[in-house]
Specification:
Layout (H helix, E strand, L loop, with lengths): L2 H13 L3 H6 L10 H15 L1 H4 L6 H29 L7 H17 L1 H18 L6 H7 L1 H17 L5 H13 L2 E2 L4 E2 L4 E3 L5 E2 L4 E2 L4 E3 L3 E3 L19 E2 L4 E2 L4 E3 L3 E2 L4 E2 L4 E2 L8 E2 L16
Parallel strand pairs: 1-4, 2-5, 3-6, 4-7, 5-8, 6-9, 7-10, 8-11, 9-12, 10-13, 12-14
Helix pairs in contact: 3-5, 3-10, 5-6, 7-9, 8-9, 9-10
Amino acid sequence: MGEKDILLKNIKDLSVITEEERKVVPSEMVSLPSLDELKEIVDCIKLIVFPDFFSGKRMDEDMRSYNIGVTIEKLRSLLQRQIYLGLQFCCSKDECQDELRRSAESMTLQFIDRLPEIKRVLYTDVEAMYNNDPAVENYGEIIYCYPVMNAMVHHRTAHELFKMGIPVIPRIISEMAHSTTGIDIHPGAQIGEYFCIDHGTGVVVGETCIIGNHVMLYQGVTLGAKSFKADENGKLINEPRHPIIEDNVTIYSNSSILGRITVGHDSIIGGNVWLTHDVEPHSQILQSRALHLSFKDGLGI
């Protein structure tokens, strides 16, 4: 078989819509959510929340109001379309497309009405990072440079959309931050004010986590599930399975806090700790003292 024949044969084979593909993408779908437009949506939110930083210039009040108005209108148009495509992505073919469009319009306005609160809470995250890192020079450095702020803009956006019951779109937005920062926060996680992640690489926060105010995590921390329950058909049950972290808790690097346990307020969890039980408030949990052993002739390698 010649080179051309091989190419044509495989093009033909790969162009056939398989049964596996039909399960993934319903045949009645008009279009799929757009990664490019979802990135534009997050960029719009950054312009609205931090206008003096991402607009490229300082503005007086009138110009600021004009620019934010233009950006909100762009956000409304983009978000309404993507919410509609997200709803369509998971709907049955019997659902009315006009009803989905109306739902998308209503949800978009509901999200825009939450923007002042999203902005307020994001500025508490900036303040928390500033107060917990002596290496930072000013607040603007945090907004421009720190991965936690990029992750939290994505998360606070995705979480609001998740609470509305919008499918797939919140996960895409969360995974955008994950891919660029190494911080993996499920959009369902409930995170309070003044949240702080130092460095951030490798942090994982599960869907049913509840995190209080003034909580600080270091790199490599996992707030995960210990096990998964299944129903009689073998399908995994989505139930609360991640930790509750109360106010004023610090968790140091590479610690794993697993299962539906509670870490009481004002506690400190040291680095490299494996924790699967409740912790009383004002506790300090540290790993066992390191063992000093001698190795000879390559032993221990």
